[in-house]
Design a protein that fits this description.
alpha+beta; 5 helices; about 25% strand
Length: about 190
């Protein structure tokens, strides 16, 4: 498997990784931390996909996609923190006033897990943020303490994977999804 990470500007590829099996289903589409909860609650069924399609047409696009050849196999959401709900979070602290970027969701399609795709996505998201002029990038992964993490909660990433990518612990948080604490990890890009 040869993984290439590219900006997520091709909506069809984003739909392959994030979209529902049924066009009318209401799934996250990785919008829950990107848009205000009031807006998030109003988007139902196909409207969610339409919103993401519009994001894919913007510059910069809403994240990066991992491809194995032409097949999209993974996704990472990355954007300026100020453009996400993390800008107003009560559970994820601000370390300083640096205009950091956030990397908050990693998704690898079933059948492609355990092959290094998430590591490639983290590296690709870092490169993407750097190319956009980000001075630093933050992630908010789970501190699994070496234990298994439920696949549903693994979207935030695992602390050890970010440490391998050079991120350092910058702060503790009060966020505890699925019984696992999240930590704020940061990588300086200057």
């Amino acid at each position: 498997m040869t993984i290439e990470v590219r900006p997520a500007s091709a909506f069809a590829d984003v739909r392959t990784v994030l979209g529902p099996k049924s066009a009318t289903a209401t799934v996250c589409w990785c919008l829950s931390h990107r848009i205000p909860s009031k807006v998030d609650r109003t988007l139902r069924g196909p409207a969610r996909g339409e919103y993401v399609a519009e994001l894919c047409r913007t510059s910069p696009p809403p994240g990066v996609l991992a491809h194995d050849g032409d097949e999209p196999v993974g996704w990472a959401a990355v954007a300026p923190r100020a453009a996400t709900t993390y800008a107003r979070s009560r559970t994820i602290p601000h370390v300083d006033d640096l205009p950091v970027w956030s990397l908050w969701c990693i998704r690898v399609r079933p059948g492609h897990r355990g092959q290094g795709v998430s590591h490639a996505l983290v590296a690709g998201a870092v490169g993407f943020a750097r190319a956009q002029g980000a001075p630093a990038i933050e992630a908010y992964p789970l501190d699994s303490g070496g234990g298994r993490v439920d696949t549903t909660m693994a979207y935030a990433g695992i602390r050890a994977n970010f440490e391998r990518a050079g991120f350092v612990h910058a702060a503790d948080t009060t966020s505890v999804p699925g019984g696992r604490p999240r930590v704020l990890m940061r990588l300086d890009l200057r």
